[in-house]
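Structure, all two chains, one model.
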Amino acid sequence: GAVVSQHPSRVICKSGTSVKIECRSLDFQATTMFWYRQFPKKSLMLMATSNEGSKATYEQGVEKDKFLINHASLTLSTLTVTSAHPEDSSFYICSARGGTGENIQYFGAGTRLSVL
Amino acid sequence: QKEVEQDPGPLSVPEGAIVSLNCTYSNSAFQYFMWYRQYSRKGPELLMYTYSSGNKEDGRFTAQVDKSSKYISLFIRDSQPSDSATYLCAMSAVQGAQKLVFGQGTRLTINP
């Protein structure tokens, strides 16, 4: 299967700082990437959808100025949590969908963010 | 009513048992059906993918889709302790944004 790399796997930061998470498709070109948030023992909550070269589409209730998404190339998308606060602490997961026409998403390993 | 319903469990079975995991859905436009396995503190891993109806087998795993009943299943044969994880069903329509709609996930434990 296709490989999606997500980095870092774990980050601890102070309140007020910004954190960048990278998501890379290693062996395929991802026309679309997705960012999810997952709370403990809960399913995945879609935050935003990004297509290469265009602005991300955010889900209702997700602050676009808080969660900045950049999809500058067909293999890289980044999520920046700006001015992080303790309530932003969560598990963030990216996924990538290739251009084969099939709607299959391949997921990264996730990033656990802890804001102190 | 949620678009996708999945019993969250937890489900605990002895090693070697056949496991049956299920999801029901309400949106008749769904055509892509997937099962993901997620270990604790890891991202979901694609297990099975089915387009439209039918069965698909891969090793110890079998996925079934019954569109007339809006019901999908994942069977695990000869279950192993390493199969202990949360299993998420996911599905999407063909048209539009094609966002995945996930079930709640079923926590499965295989006891040695």
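The interface with chain A takes residues 32, 34, 36, 41-46, 49, 51, 88, 90, 92, 94, 97-100, 102-105, 107 of chain B (CB under 8 Å).
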